[in-house]
From TrEMBL:
Residues 3-240 form the GP-PDE domain. This is Glycerophosphoryl diester phosphodiesterase. It holds the Pfam family GDPD. It comes from the Bacteria.
Length: 249
């Protein structure tokens, strides 16, 4: 029973999402894959945050694309989650890479290019240049809701593993299947529930988001899915181990 545990925005269930503490915790609990989101700042910096604005996860206001790296670095990115993390800052992609390298992370880093609302011209080349600027102890993949971003990334980095993120739309899987270079889909968990009867023969990898509850994890295991994207990677790992022991028994 092999299933990849994907730490969603790091270990975001018990650390502020997309911050260095969340990524450090994901390394500690041995997540197979760590997922993060990347935007471009006003001055072209690669910024790790989920939303297009800083409003929800910092003490600031405004769009990432309207703020410079220096302005983003002035923000508090942890207190919204807990005062324990009041020192957490908005990280750049390079800072996350350096953290994972320092911790000798040997898993997979999957980078979501957040181009489904703003195109962020040139973001694909910027991210690829950074990831290929040196050797890292981990493997890197890319993913996006924007199929055109994946097309561009494939042209830039033909050997890269690429995954298509989707919600529940029936038109989305054919888009992924029409491109032989797409390794898998990352659908909303509800899509898995609604299409469970046909998933055993699905020709590419499936890693649904966001799978936090034990019943949902067990469903994914029963369906033989490639991986699960979860806010609680340590808890997910424990449930997977429990199911393995039950199966042996």
């Amino acid at each position: 029973m092999m299933v990849q545990i994907v730490a969603h925005r790091g270990s975001s269930g018990n650390r502020p999402e997309n911050t260095l503490p969340a990524f450090a915790e994901a390394v500690r609990v041995k997540a197979d894959i760590i997922e993060l989101d990347v935007h471009l700042s006003k001055d072209g910096g690669l910024i790790v945050m989920h939303d297009e604005t800083v409003d929800r996860t910092t003490n600031g206001k405004g769009r990432i694309c309207d703020l410079t790296v220096a302005e983003l670095k002035e923000l508090n990115a942890g207190s919204w989650f807990s005062e324990e993390f009041q020192a957490a800052k908005v990280p750049t992609l390079k800072e996350v890479l350096d953290l994972l390298a320092a911790k000798n992370y040997r898993g997979i880093l999957t980078i979501e290019l957040k181009t489904d609302h703003y195109e962020y011209e040139g973001i694909e080349a910027k991210v690829s240049d950074l990831l290929n600027s040196q050797e890292w102890p981990f493997t890197h993949w890319y993913c996006s809701f924007n199929i055109e971003t994946l097309d561009r990334m494939h042209a830039i980095e033909p050997d890269a593993i690429l995954d298509f993120i989707m919600g529940r739309g029936e038109d989305k899987p054919p888009l992924a299947l029409s491109r032989p270079y797409i390794e898998g889909i990352h659908p909303a968990y509800r899509w898995v529930q609604e299409t469970a009867t046909v998933l055993t023969d699905f020709p590419i990898a499936i890693r649904p988001w966001t799978v936090n509850e034990e019943a949902a994890i067990r469903t994914c295991l029963a369906l033989g899915l490639t991986g699960i994207i979860t806010d609680f990677p340590e808890n997910a790992r424990a449930i997977v181990q429990q199911v393995r022991e039950e199966t042996k028994g």
